[in-house]
Amino acid sequence: MTTQASTTAYPSGAGGGEPLLSVRDLTVTFGRGGRAFTAVDHVSFDVQPGQTVGLVGESGCGKSVTSLAIMQLLPSRGNTVSGTVSFAGEDLLSLSDAQMRDRRGRDLAMIFQDPLSSLNPVVPLGTQVAEVLQRHKGMKNAPAQKRAAELLDKVGIPDPTRRLKEYPHQLSGGMRQRALIAMALACEPRLLIADEPTTALDVTIQAQILALLKELVQDSGTALIMITHDLGVVAGLCDEVNVLYGGRIVERAGRHDLFARPRHPYTGGLLASIPRLTEERGRRLTPVPGSVADNIPWDHGCAFAPRCASEIGVCRERTPELVPDRPELGADRLLRCHNPLESNPLDDAPTTEESGA
Length: 357
Fold this sequence. Notes:
By secondary structure, the protein is α/β, with parallel strands linked by helices. The protein folds into two domains: 21-107 and 189-355, P-loop containing nucleotide triphosphate hydrolases (Rossmann fold), CATH 3.40.50; 118-185. The protein has 13 helices and twelve strands. It has helices at residues 63-70, 97-103, 115-118, 125-137, 141-154, 160-163, 173-185, 203-220, 231-237, 255-260, 265-272, 345-348, 352-355, and strands spanning 21-30, 37-47, 52-56, 79-87, 90-91, 108-111, 191-195, 223-228, 240-245, 248-254, 323-324, 334-335. The strands form two sheets. Strands 6-7-8-3-9-10-12-11 form an eight-stranded mixed beta sheet, with helices on both faces. Strand 4 and strand 5 form a beta hairpin. Helix 4 runs parallel beside helix 7 (173-185), helix 5 packs across helix 7 and helix 7 runs parallel beside helix 8. The longest helix is centred in the middle third of the chain and has 18 residues, at 203-220. It starts with 20 loop residues before the first strand and ends with a helix. The model is unreliable at 1-15 and 350-357 (pLDDT under 50).
């Protein structure tokens, strides 16, 4: 059995120039000894300046832990983080807490999933936005408050001057999320990490937030890591997509290549489970069977094997490596699979009439 994870560093699909963020063999382990659990397992990817990179997968696949490790926001006790996270040539994992605090908010920022728990409930919104400017740009309170109002206006919050005096509970979910985006962009960071920023919002507000992020990233040239389980978000926003399963990247491709020809059965399953308005009436959705708890350890074979319709004998005998896929399917595609898909599962999905339902 293969027990050693591949540490080969393959380039991202963006190409051209030095990456702004280069993650190599990032591994996060919770606990110690026999009870240790590896949540992120030798993850490597690059983000170019101005590029939007997606980290996609079900809950529990390691997306959010990856982002927290990059930002050094994981608890200092009870876990082990290894590998390198190079930001503009500097390894973030080697920095002290004080050095990292100087960079968070100024050079790289994060938008969290739940704005209500991310904002301080007893501090006015204006104070929370302004303190970022005071901390990293040395602004006095009055100009910081004025700039905070401009930021709230920029992200689409009506009557921003009045909102500065309000508390988070007085805002709608969409406004709270916009306020978080304003805080994250206050110092014009070079890298923004968005951890499922639309999960708690209704569909209309989701579309507005995604459009806002896309516009702000394009206007400022900020690089964006979008963490999501929603491939619909990926379709409208990301340049390159990394599909994670069991803490490892199982497929990497450009957005268009991934949707046109998914190669990993897990990617195909995610795509087949999404309802589409353009599909003919009666087409069945095909969910990915089982749950992430049905994994087998990567050092025993492919973690996805117990849930995979394409499983063959070698899948439980040898660990698949992340290697370049067929170049005719897209430049710099990477795949971790012994028996990849040869056709798009969406083209073969049965209708309710064909399935006898």
